[in-house]
Amino acid sequence: FYKYDSMSDEDIVALSGAHTVGRAFADRSGTVAEGSAAGQGTAYTKRGAAEGQKSLSSGGRSWTKNWLVFDNSYFTDMGKNDPEVIYFPTDTVLQTDASFRVHCERFAKDQATFFASYATAHKKLSELGCKWEPAQGITGV
What we know:
The structure is a single chain. The chain is built from five helices and two strands. The chain has helices spanning 9-16, 73-77, 89-96, 98-109, 111-127; strands at 23-24, 61-62. The chain is globular, with a radius of gyration of 17 Å. The two termini are 29 Å apart. The model has no long low-confidence stretch (mean pLDDT 87).
């Protein structure tokens, strides 16, 4: 994000809060031990999407207990050392770097503040656009 002058520390922390939803997988990113095969995962992810009766999305390791809910739990739960979730160095620096920590603490205290900052940062990031490779985009999929 730093290569974009328009992204502030607040924007970076807010966008990191998107980890509230989703998981990491061994067979996709290699960043965690848990894969996407049946029976893999943590206490929070091994059943997949609990709302689905026959979920095919089990496994992985999430950043939050309720990994299908977009809220501020990424910030409120960070630092609780829950062994069932993952935090990368890029996550933990939000609590250790003073310029990030102030925003991390604000978002933990006030979900509405997080939502507002996230919306602003997401819009800003989206408006930066993207560079397609190949230049004509991906076709025939």
